[in-house]
């Protein structure tokens, strides 16, 4: 789905973020809402050789994996007017060109009683992407995250910021995958610091 196809005939658009977009959108938006999408689970299965790693040591960032029984919490941003084209140009470079993500439209459910879902654009890295790393144990993923760094910063920052978002904005949601990796990565960091 190309950006021009997404915005055809639209004056506004919702964009759903479930990784770094929840704490660092870096584009202008009209408003944001915490909520969730259904039938996807968040997983640290995608490699990053630009923002949070490099070619020799790719970092690990999240993507969405289809799962009929899952929900993924995050933030949707409404963009309108000139924000619409500007945000899609920016995200095309950030997520598609550098990250290898594709786009899909999904139903986003804002948090709260009696809220109607809205259609939202989401970026997903699929298994056919060359940067896709696939599943690994929380210990393996945590160890990789603990030592990787890219042009945007340390991979550990990405993990910790995402975990903090979930604790502060979605305290009622238990993301076992995320928190198990956070524990594993912090264990590796404590060992590295003790060894110095």
TrEMBL record:
It comes from Poecilia reticulata (Guppy). It holds the Pfam family ChaC. One of its GO terms (cellular component) is cytoplasm. Belongs to the gamma-glutamylcyclotransferase family. ChaC subfamily. Keywords: Lyase. The keyword Ribonucleoprotein does not apply. It catalyses: glutathione = L-cysteinylglycine + 5-oxo-L-proline. It comes from the Eukaryota. GO terms for molecular function: gamma-glutamylcyclotransferase activity; glutathione specific gamma-glutamylcyclotransferase activity. InterPro entries: ChaC, GGCT-like, GGCT-like_sf. One of its GO terms (biological process) is glutathione catabolic process. Its EC number is 4.3.2.7. This is Gamma-glutamylcyclotransferase. Catalyzes the cleavage of glutathione into 5-oxo-L-proline and a Cys-Gly dipeptide. Acts specifically on glutathione, but not on other gamma-glutamyl peptides. The keyword Lyase applies.
